[in-house]
UniProtKB/TrEMBL annotation:
Coiled-coil positions: none
Protein name: NudC domain-containing protein 1
Signal sequence, start to end: none
InterPro entries the UniProt entry points to: CS_dom (IPR007052), HSP20-like_chaperone (IPR008978), NUDCD1 (IPR037895)
Superkingdom classification of source: Eukaryota
Length: 583
């Protein structure tokens, strides 16, 4: 069995600035333009039965504004009339109204349990679209940057079960066929295993295919499903369609391909409630194995063979327990007896007295070990020196375990440890794993639409941007940019809702739930002379922080950053903030 490779992210030291002095608040005004929408954004609020943190992460914090990474400064949203509206900016001073490019065929208001409509810009001529009712659409758009050739047409649509949102998609062109792979996210109710929240997260990897020579319509050729217990921070299909990368707090696994999900649940449940074949206990000198016998089983039906390192138990001609023992026994002194309650009791005498056996038969999982209260008390006593009822019983000793006063509130990271996993598309097994530890996930951004989206992680106080390269098996994740001290700064923004950065890394931005937008620029050379008084040296560069306050009391529903502008969507308005002037 192949084991996933444990990898690490290699930081490029030249991209770090150990002498970074912080952001300087700039009072320079930011040009801000406001567009009133013809119809309100199609916001879908969480229902009473969507009460978990996972529902909030996936649907409550959904970004209703979609940026077309194939065409600069082009954003889309869905309004409550079922129209997909587009705004493409050419000139800030001559903004037009958002225009309708497509209308969803479904009457969304008729569905009670729908989710928000979602979309992903698969290529320069394809869009994957969900209406939030469980139907997937493939849309051929023509060249979206060209108004003469742009025309949105449905090339495929099919009901795929429970409602979902689209989180990623790719387009694959080969000599004889065209296929589109998309990743769908659902939060399903756990019918059998009610531990935790009672819900699990389902990621479905759907491949839709059309062969040119057959002249048939597009059809689904593959559906693979992963299950997990937390909404992934990041999930994307590799550009060649050969794999999948996921950043999540709790791990994901593929359910058996081609197997009915209800059947797999039934099998899992039957495994959980299956009784052990035998029970065993141990002392320092011996082991006792107890087996429940069938009602009509007699002494003549039982055959037991003891060897120094092996045991073989046969009941009524059927091999019941056989295998190599964990350690050696005194096979001549080992015995067995039938008890009054119709159970078979086997006594094995240890050759190495005092040795604790972690298992009876090597590799056998059919039995259950029962530990008695005296053993538990002895183990607890041996571990007593490692524990204490007090948080820090002796803070004045040479090496105190931790000084909590040195931690600031924004340093506390509640998730224990996230991981970055790469799954192979053919074997559906994990091939690479990166334990992210305390490297908190911050946001993702598409730098190059032909590549996978980048993800940004907190490393100490900085925020580091990573570009996945699936083709390079030895070094899959490249450190491409750093936002100095941003990991620390963003942690203090308790009301933040969305986080983004420009594809050219010139600035990062975050917005709160209401009104305020914070912009953090990369360091730029100073036009005037500035001195650091403490160190007595000239400061060559300064990183500016700017704050924009929107003139609205409506909550922010969408947030996107391009190289020149920030787009902020509220229920009834679309705001444009000019961040950079064109070079």
């Amino acid at each position: 069995m192949e084991v996933a490779a444990n990898c690490s992210l290699r930081v490029k030291r030249p991209l770090l600035d150990p002498r970074f002095e912080g952001y300087k608040l700039s009072l320079e005004p930011l040009p801000c333009y406001q567009l009133e929408l013809d119809a309100a954004v199609a916001e879908v609020k969480l229902r009473d039965d969507q009460y978990t943190l996972e529902h909030m992460h996936a649907f409550g914090m959904y970004n209703y504004l979609h940026c077309d990474s194939w065409y600069q400064d082009s954003v889309y949203y869905v309004d409550n009339l079922g129209r997909i509206m587009n705004l493409t900016v050419m000139l800030d001073t001559a903004l037009g109204k958002p225009r309708e490019v497509f209308r969803l065929p479904t009457d969304l208001i008729a569905y009670d349990n729908r989710l928000c409509a979602s979309m992903h810009f698969t290529s320069s001529t394809w869009v994957t679209l969900s209406d939030g009712t469980g139907r997937l659409y493939l849309i051929g758009t023509g060249e979206r940057g060209n108004s003469a050739s742009e025309k949105w047409e449905i090339m495929f649509n099919e009901e795929l079960g429970n409602p979902f949102i689209i989180i990623h998609s790719i387009s694959l062109l080969k000599a004889e066929e065209h296929s589109i792979a998309t990743l769908l996210l659902r939060i399903e109710k756990e019918e059998l295993d009610m531990k935790g929240s009672g819900f699990y997260v389902s990621l479905e990897w759907v491949t839709i295919n059309k062969k040119y020579k057959d002249k048939k319509k597009y059809e689904i050729t593959k559906r693979n499903i992963l299950h997990g217990k937390s909404v992934p921070h990041y999930a994307a299909i590799e550009p060649d369609g050969n794999g999948l990368m996921i950043v999540s707090y709790k791990s994901f696994t593929f359910v058996q391909v081609g197997q009915n999900l209800e059947e797999s649940k039934d099998e899992d449940m039957s495994e959980k409630i299956k009784e052990p074949l035998y029970y065993w206990q141990q002392t320092e000198d011996d082991l006792t194995v107890t087996i429940s016998l069938p009602e009509d089983c007699t002494k003549e039906d039982i055959q037991i063979q003891f060897l120094p390192d092996h045991v073989n138990v046969v009941l009524k001609g059927q091999r019941f327990l056989e295998g190599n023992l964990y350690s050696s026994i005194d096979h001549e002194s080992s015995t067995w007896i039938i008890k009054e309650n119709n159970s078979l009791e086997i006594s094995l005498i240890k050759k190495n007295e005092g040795l604790t056996w972690p298992e009876l038969v090597v590799g056998d999982k059919e039995g259950e070990f029962i530990r008695d209260s005296a053993q538990c008390a002895a183990i607890a006593e041996r571990l007593m020196h490692l524990t204490s009822d007090e948080l820090n019983p002796n803070p004045d000793k040479g090496k105190p375990p931790c000084n909590a006063q040195e931690l600031e509130e924004c340093d506390i990271f509640f998730e224990e440890s996230s991981s970055l996993c790469r799954f192979d598309g053919s074997t559906l097994k994990t091939t690479h794993v990166v334990n992210l530890g305390s490297n908190q996930y911050l946001f993702s951004v598409i730098v190059d639409p032909k590549e996978m989206p980048c993800f940004c992680l907190r490393h100490d106080v900085d925020a580091l941007l990573w570009q996945p390269h699936s083709s390079n098996q030895d070094d899959m994740w490249e450190h491409i940019a750093t936002f100095n001290a941003l990991g620390y700064v963003q942690a203090s923004k308790r009301d933040k809702k969305f986080f983004a950065c420009a594809p050219n890394y010139s600035y990062a931005a975050l917005c709160e739930c209401l009104r305020r937008v914070f912009i953090y620029r990369q360091p730029t050379p100073m036009s005037t002379v500035l001195y650091n008084r403490k160190e007595g040296r000239q400061v060559g560069q300064v990183a500016k922080q700017q704050v924009a306050s929107l003139e609205t009391s409506d909550p922010i529903l969408g947030f996107q950053a391009t190289n020149e502008r920030l787009f902020v969507l509220t229920t009834k308005n679309l705001f444009l903030i000019k961040v950079n002037t064109e070079n």
